[in-house]
Amino acid sequence: MDIEKLISIKPKRDEVKETPQIREWLDRFREEREFDGIKKTTLRNDITRLRVFLSFVFLEIEKTPEITNNGDFVKFFNYLEKERKLQRNTLDKYFKLLKVFYRLMRLKNFSQFEEESKERKRYSKFEIKHYDSINAELINQVLQKIIKSSSRTKLRDAVHIRFLWDTGARLSESLNITYGDCDFNEGLFKLRDTKGSEERMVTCSGDTLEALKHYCRFNVLQGPEDTIFQTNKGGRIVKVGWIGQVFKSTIDELKEEGKIPKNKRIVVHSLRHGRAVDLLDQGIPIEIVKEYLGHKSIETTLFYAHSKERQQKMIKDIKKML
C-alpha cells in the first residue's frame, strides 16, 4: 500500500456543471438503465460519471455525443487522468460506462476508440466473458415456460428467443430487423445495424419461420421500414433490456426448480454462444462460422472453438473410443 499517496491531501476537482442539454442526455440514459433493472447505487454512480463526460463534451470541446470522434475520447481520458487525477481502475469504469452509453443511445462513434483501445490494451483486459452456452433441450424448457406464462408478450418473446438461437444474431441486431430486411419465403434475414457496421445474412429453421410469420400477423405496423419485433401498442421497437429480463427471470425459475444448476451463468448472449458451438460441432468450417456470426476477428471465433463445452464433448467422444 502506498501510504504516502493515501495520506496526501488530494486536489479538489472542478465542480461538474449541468446544462439543460446535459440533463436531457442523462434522463435518456437513466430511463434506459432503469428499464434494464440495474441497482440504484450502480445507476447513481454511472450518472455521476456520465455527467463528467457530458460536461466535458458540451462545455470543454463544445460538441455533442453524436459527433465526438476518436481524438475527442483520447482528450477526455487524458483529462480524467491528468486534470481530475483519476486512478487506472476508475478509468476502466469510465471506459465501460461509455461503451454502454453509446450502445444504448444507438450511436456508433465510440466503436473506433473501443477497437483501438482493445488493440493497445488501454483500459481493460478485454477478456471474453465466460458465459455458459445453451443447448436445444434447455431452450425448449425456456420456451415452454414462457409460452405457458400469463405475459401479454409471451408469443413475441418466445419467437424472439427461438429466432436468436437459430440465427446467432446479437440482440441489438435482431431488434433492428425490419420487414424490408426479411425474405419470408426463403427464411433469410438481412442484419444491417451490426456491431461491425457490415451487413450480413442469417437464416432460420422452417419451424422458426412459421412461428415468426404467425407472430408477425399480429403486428400493428407492417411496412418495409417497420421492425418485426414490436410493442403491443403502436408498433414501437422493443427496448433492448426487455428480452434479457424475460430470459433471466425464466432461467432463474428453472434454477429454483432444480432443472438448471445454480452455478450456471446463462444469459441471452448464451444463445449466440450456443449457436457458435453447435455450428462448430456440426463441422462447419471456422471461417464460415466467423462470417455468419459477424466476428471481426478469427480469435473471437476460436474462443468458441476451444470452449469448455466443446472440450467436454471431445473428452466424452475420446472416452467412448478407448
Automatic annotation (TrEMBL):
Top-rank taxon: Archaea
Domain (Tyr recombinase): residue spans on this chain: 129-317
The keyword DNA-binding belongs to this UniProt entry's keyword annotation: yes
SUPFAM superfamilies, sorted: DNA breaking-rejoining enzymes
Domain Core-binding (CB): 20-106
GO MF annotations in UniProt: DNA binding
Keywords: DNA integration, DNA recombination, DNA-binding
InterPro entries membership: CB (IPR044068), DNA_brk_join_enz (IPR011010), Integrase-like_cat_sf (IPR013762), Integrase_catalytic (IPR002104), Integrase_recombinase_N (IPR010998), Integrase_SAM-like_N (IPR004107), Tyrosine_recombinase_XerCD (IPR050090)
Alphabetical list of CDD domains matching this protein: DNA_BRE_C
One Gene Ontology term from the biological process aspect of the record: DNA recombination
Entry protein name: Integrase/recombinase XerD
